[in-house]
Structures are given as structure tokens and as C-alpha cells.
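User: Could you write out the 3D structure of this protein bound to glutathione? I've included everything you need below.
Assistant: Certainly. Input first, then the structure.
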Amino acid sequence: MKNTVLLSALTIAGLSAGAAAAGTLDDVKARGKLNCGVTTGLVGFAAPNASGEWEGFDVAVCRAVAAAVLGDGNAVEFVPTTGKTRFTALASGEIDMLARNTTWTFSRDVDLKFEFTGVNYYDGQGFMVPKELGVSSAKELDGATVCIQTGTTTELNLADFFRSNNISYEPVPIETNAEAQQQYLAGACDVYTTDASGLAATRATFEAPDAHTLLPEIISKEPLGPLVRHGDHEWGDVVRWTLNALVSAEELGVTSANIAEMAAGTNNPEINRLLGSEGTLGEMLGLSADWGKNAIAVGGNYGEVFADNIGEATPIGLARGLNAQWTKGGLLYSPPFR
Ligand SMILES: N[C@@H](CCC(=O)N[C@@H](CS)C(=O)NCC(=O)O)C(=O)O
């Protein structure tokens, strides 16, 4: 119902996703800057660092697209959006793309009229509780107060989970992750529920992360990825193939350390097409021949972006899991560059 209400509001305002359809690639080129919607702040995924520069796993997607189109990973205006404001920002044309741990769902595609251009993180919804609550399973949460971010998929998943387990809860609605963190730590809710990656990222910023547990239940599928407006296929292709370039680069062994050397030409034709020393893939996208090289050079291949921002060596400490390459038992599988 929420989606229907949002869609009606967008349609009335003349801002349905289709209305601001074609021409985004030309707009970005003319502007010399990519307007990229991100979170209001989720360390590891998208947040300004001490120098005020945005960094993170989702930020890396924005920077890669800017580098592919404009040859400069810094040519990005980062636009913070909440769970509620993100879709209006995209539909209205305020942003060219959204890279904000957003779940690809049927209604966001078909009803809100957005095009998901891939998945950059396969996730699922989890629960975090203070250890002192003494709970070891989400099924023990009968009667709990639950902090939940409005305008997200997590609201309905939560209701479904409690209903199907015949237990009750009291929602404590919040707008941003910062607010959730504050409310949860202040004891305004017993539990915080959101994407498991978001819980790990949030817990990593606590003074005493070890005092909090992520419960074992993962209650949903949350394929997170970048999205654009329906109807602008040229632009959708640019975002889709930029993400694929990062994923393929990892599979093909192209890294930030060897990319300069490999871009001069290798004995692997697919690497050559990806990096532009062979073929005309850039021209087909309306980009320069070295678009893929530029995209990968900003933060490295998918594996490097993962490791640097959210991987096991970072405080967030996420394992690759489902986000490993298909060759390593994961779900990451880029179509071929040919
Ligand atoms: N994947 C879910 C949830 C996304 C979401 O909003 N997650 C929160 C909690 S991790 C977040 O990113 N907050 C950042 C912010 O408040 O700006 C969705 O697409 O609805």
C-alpha cells in the first residue's frame, strides 16, 4: 500500500519515473558531474570520511560510473537520501542514479518504474539485540519493541515474520540509520532490524560492539543494487555494464595494481575488450574506449572494493559469502564482455 501511495504522489506531481526518461547520459556529460543518491550515512557503504569525502561500498559504484562516463571518479555530487526520500529523488531527476543499499523488488521495478541494473550485494534482513537481553533467536522476541526504518522493505518482512511465527511486536519507526542507532543504544527499542550488512556496519561504530549480537535468523532476501529510471536504456546500460566491469575485472584478475600494464594489451581478448585495447565496446555505450579501465582504476575491481570498505579486514568484517564470484561458490556472475 505504501508503494501505491508513493506512486500516486509521484504521478500527481508529474514526476513518474517514465516522465524524466531519456537523455541522462547526455545530461551527465553536459553537466560534467554525476548526481548520485546515497544514504544519509552508513559507515562502510556510504559516509563522509574525516576530510568530508564520501567513501564506501555504494559510493564506489557512483565513482566508478562517474569515471566511466567522465573519466573522473571525483566528478560526483553525492545526494544523501533516506529510505523514504530516495525514490522521489530518482523519479524527479534530482539524481541520475541511486546507489543506496536498495533492495530489488517487484513493486519497485514494475510499480515505481525503476530499473535495477544489477546486484552489488546479496543480503538478507537480520536482527541485532544487546547481549544483556539474553535472547538467542528471533523467535524469542514476542512482545519486543523493534526499531525499524520507514520506507524500507524491512517493515513488511518484519510484520510477515512475526505474523507467521504467531508472536507480536511493537514497532518504533525511525527515519535514518543514525536515528536508529541512537534510539537503540538509548534503549528506546529492544531490537534493531534491517539488512544484515547494515547491522554489521552499524554495530562496528558502537563503543562496545561486542555487547551486541546479531541473531541467527535471516528472514528475507535483500538483493541490493544500483537503480535508474525506467525507459532510459542507454543510461541503464552504462550503469549496468560499469558494475559488470568491476565484477568481471575480479574474475579476470584485473586489479588496481596491474591495470595500467594490462590496459596496454594482454593475450586475453576479453581483458582487452574490457579495458579498451581491442574492440569498440566503449563506442557502443556512447563512451570512450577506456571507460572500463577508468571505472576499475578508481577503487579497483569488485573484490578490492569489497575488501577495502566492508571486508573481513575492516571493522565491519563481512565475509564474501553469497557475494563471492560464481567460480568460488558465490552468486556474482557478470555476463561476458563481447
Ligand atoms: N534494503 C532495504 C533497507 C535499506 C535501508 O534503508 N537501510 C538502512 C539501514 S542499514 C540504511 O541504509 N540507512 C541509511 C540512512 O539512514 O541513510 C530497502 O531497500 O528498503
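Residues 39-42, 82-83, 101-103, 149, 152-154, 176-177, 194-195, 198, 222, 224 surround glutathione (CB under 6 Å).
User: Perfect, thank you.
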